[in-house]
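<instruction>
Derive structure tokens from the sequence

<record> Sequence and structure tokens follow
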Amino acid sequence: MTRGNEARPFAGFPGGKTRTVPIPEAFFTELLPRIDHPGELRVTLVCFYHMARRSGPLRYARRSELEADPALTAALPAHEIREGLNRAVARGTLLHVRIEEDGRTDDLYFLNTPRGRLAYEAIRRGERPASLELGESAVLVADRPNLFALYEQNIGPLTPLIAQELEEAARTYPAEWIEEALRIAVSRNVRRWSYVRRILERWATEGRETGGLDEAYWRRAAETWKKRRR
């Protein structure tokens, strides 16, 4: 599918003095060879652009601004922008915190630099970095471990289909359920998302504290999954 002006040739960069966007050298030498998802690459570059447009010692990008960016939305729909952000956080390029301000919730993304890490750790401790320029009513909450990162650490490589299923699970189940289900799958050496999904579905049906943690049931289920893999 062609989006936006994809078919139109680029007219070239203008002459004279133009605005530039600084990008760390490590992006080209370390990150770029690892990024294999076009949405993640586009989102990461647009984050650099939005951070460069901000003033102040601690710069960030807002999810709401990315989802309203005309160049980015011409290339990616909103759900792919969020997937790209999640992948960039999982890779360690960006650090994510939630912000609640004037009754609205948004997401802030810092670059994973020494200054960004100090700000992120301060927010995790419940502090507000003095260098972060926000309204007085803003409340910041450090993100839980990124679901994409948890999946890759515990189950395996992320595919576009699995990314969609993870996003759906995040909208359906509490974060602590997903984290617990992943731990159970790893402890039983059944590193498959379908097994994790089955745990979550059973918890939703029978309750996490009752039928959902029946050890005999899950031992049988684990053996069944292992046999299917042979």
Remarks:
- The beta strands are 61-62, 94-101, 104-111, 139-142.
- The chain has two domains: 25-142, 147-229.
